Amino acid sequence: MTLKRVFLAALVAGGMIGSAAADDMERPTGFYLSGGGGANFLDRDTIPNILGATGNHNISYESGWLGIGALGYKFDETLRIEVELGYRDNNIQGVSNLPVGPTLVTNSSDVTAFSQLVNVIFDIPISERVDVSVGGGVGGALVDAQIAIPGTVALNDDQYGFAYQALAGLTYQLFPRWQAVAEYRYFATAGSDLDASLVPLEVELDYDSHAAVVGLRYFFNAPAAPAPAPIPVAQDIGPWIVFFDFDKSNIRPDAAATISTAVAQAQEAETLRFRVTGHTDTVGSSAYNDALSLRRAEAVKAELIRLGVPADEIVISGAGFGDPLVSTGPGVREQQNRRAVIEIP
Question: Which CATH architecture has domain 3-219?
Answer without folding.
Answer: Beta Barrel (2.40)
